[in-house]
């Protein structure tokens, strides 16, 4: 069984902001391959699962779903809120480092409990209108509104951002390479060569952004991918091992057990 992929944005668009669709109750596990999704709910009860973590919806609440993350909804009441869909191309066309840093900080928190809503609701409402307009300075207007919105969310949400991570374009490029390849390569040298930098420099950038080394970051991503495949597909251990670039299934099983303390089969059946 392949993981279901949904696409909710036209190919010609780089960003989309719209009200959260009313009437949604339950969705099947799926992912979005071409974009990240930021969901703000001011109404609604139930649960939202991202990868293998389930969050109870205690609104107002914000969810950050990264590209290729699995997620699904299980709602018990009519939701109300907004959705931002953002492709990599939107950020590639941005010259505003602060906006990229703010998105990086937000992406560190899959779920945020929002404390102040009046201004945030107004900003979302403005964005739904402005992203549909065209003009010489329209991209700047949208970026300005996004910066204000994301700054407000980080200032008036829990957990509070105290030790702020510094996300930059190089780190985002590294994540894109790691997440976008046909196979995951468990090698800092490999990604450093693709980015025309040294392993030491890449390690410094990743550590500054996340607090962990590049090799640990890659290892954590490999385990996340393995868990997704075990939970949401019928792929065998051999197939998962191939996708994650292990030499065989026994090597994958040993690696997984060392990191998770259970075998892949035990994790899938738990």
Itemize the secondary structure elements and their pairings.
Blueprint: E1 15-19, E2 35-43, E3 46-50, E4 53-56, E5 61-65, E6 71-75, E7 80-87, H1 88-92, H2 97-107, E8 111-114, H3 118-130, H4 138-155, E9 157-158, H5 169-180, H6 188-194, H7 199-210, H8 214-232, H9 237-243, H10 249-260, H11 264-269
Description:
The structure is a single chain. The chain contains eleven helices and nine strands. Helix 3 runs antiparallel to helix 4, helix 6 crosses helix 7 and helix 9 packs across helix 10. A six-stranded antiparallel β-sheet has the order 1-7-2-5-8-9. Strands 4-3-6 form a three-stranded antiparallel β-sheet, with no helix packed on it. Helix content is 45%, strand content 17%. Strand 3 and strand 4 form a beta hairpin. The chain folds into two domains: 144 residues, Jelly Rolls; 101 residues, Orthogonal Bundle (Arc Repressor Mutant, subunit A), CATH 1.10.10.60. By secondary structure, the chain is of the alpha+beta class.
Key descriptive features of the protein:
270 residues, alpha+beta, Jelly Rolls, Arc Repressor Mutant, subunit A, 2 domains, six-stranded antiparallel β-sheet, three-stranded antiparallel β-sheet, 11 helices, 17% strand, globular, AraC-bd
């Amino acid at each position: 069984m392949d993981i279901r992929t949904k696409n909710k944005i036209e190919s010609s668009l780089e960003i989309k902001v719209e009200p959260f669709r009313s009437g949604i109750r339950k969705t099947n596990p799926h992912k979005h391959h071409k974009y990240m999704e930021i969901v703000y709910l001011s109404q609604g009860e139930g649960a939202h699962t991202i990868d293998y973590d389930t969050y109870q919806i205690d609104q107002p609440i914000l969810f950050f779903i990264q590209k290729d993350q699995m997620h699904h909804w299980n709602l018990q009441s009519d939701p109300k809120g907004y959705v931002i869909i953002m492709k990599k191309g939107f950020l590639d066309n941005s010259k505003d480092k602060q906006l990229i840093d703010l998105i990086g900080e937000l992406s560190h928190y899959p779920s945020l409990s929002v404390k102040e809503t009046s201004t945030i609701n107004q900003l979302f409402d403005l964005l739904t209108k402005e992203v549909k307009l065209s003009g010489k300075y329209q991209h700047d207007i949208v970026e300005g509104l996004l910066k204000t919105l994301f700054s407000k969310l980080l200032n008036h949400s829990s957990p509070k951002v105290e030790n702020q991570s510094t996300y930059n374009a190089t780190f985002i490029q590294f994540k894109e390479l790691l997440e976008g390849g046909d196979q995951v390569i468990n090698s800092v040298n490999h990604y450093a060569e693709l980015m025309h930098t040294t392993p030491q420099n890449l390690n410094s950038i990743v550590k500054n952004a996340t607090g962990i080394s590049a090799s640990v970051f890659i290892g954590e991503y490999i385990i996340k991918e393995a868990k997704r495949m075990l939970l949401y597909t019928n792929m065998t251990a051999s197939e998962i091992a191939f996708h994650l670039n292990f030499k065989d299934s026994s090597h994958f099983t040993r690696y997984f057990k060392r990191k998770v303390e259970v075998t892949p089969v035990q994790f899938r059946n738990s």
